[in-house]
Write a structure and sequence with these properties.
This protein is of the alpha+beta class. It has a single domain (4-167), classed as Aminopeptidase (3-Layer(aba) Sandwich), CATH 3.40.630. It is built from four helices and seven strands. The protein has a five-stranded mixed sheet, sandwiched between helices. It has a two-stranded antiparallel sheet with strand order 1-2. The longest helix has 16 residues, at 129-144. Mean pLDDT is 85; it is low at 1-29.
Length: 179
């Protein structure tokens, strides 16, 4: 019997309703089907919402339903300054997402790439899904001629930081926000 990992997600997300938190059960990965990385599609909305809820929950955050709507629309939009999303899919199930965008930089002629959100379901962690999603963003940045890809994480995110220490360079910058 597969090991079950409880996780908070959205139940039956409906644009007209508030997101309904419920406990989801993600079985441990046992599939041997190949992992596919591809752009987000409109029909991914329910699974994407579940993954993004998992990401927000991990960082002890939440957003209103209209933010889900606007974010998803931006991810599917064709504005080159809007967000992009790549998903990791196996056997029709989304195992991870990465949101990123390109923007201008005052110190460079080329755009740079900000990797905003990266999330893999708990059972996919340590299997290479996160690395493959980051490498897909690197490839997208290369294709756009953006020499830099950067991201932030919480100091307490030790598991992800082990990957980041292998695939990126820790900078000395400290982030400040308007409160």
């Amino acid at each position: 019997m597969p090991r079950i990992t409880p996780f908070l997600c959205l139940a039956e997300y409906d644009k007209s309703l508030e997101p309904i938190p419920r406990l989801c059960q993600f079985p441990r990965m046992t599939q041997t089907a190949p992992l596919t990385l591809r752009p987000l599609r409109a029909e991914d909305r329910p699974q994407w919402a579940e993954l993004w809820t998992g990401y927000l929950t991990f960082y002890e955050s939440s957003v209103a339903p209209e933010v889900y709507d606007s974010t998803f629309a931006r991810l599917l939009g064709d504005d080159p300054r809007d967000f992009n999303c790549i998903v990791a899919e196996q056997d029709g199930k989304l195992l991870g997402i990465v949101h990123y965008l390109f923007h201008r930089h005052a110190w460079k002629i080329e755009d740079v790439c900000y990797l905003q959100d990266l999330f893999a379901v708990p059972e996919a962690r340590g299997t290479g899904v996160g690395r493959k999603l980051i490498e897909a963003v690197y490839a997208a940045a290369d294709a756009k001629g953006a020499p830099d890809v950067y991201w932030m994480t919480q100091e307490f995110n030790a598991t992800a930081r082990q990957l980041y220490d292998r695939i990126g360079v820790l900078t000395p910058f400290i982030e400040y926000n308007r409160s």
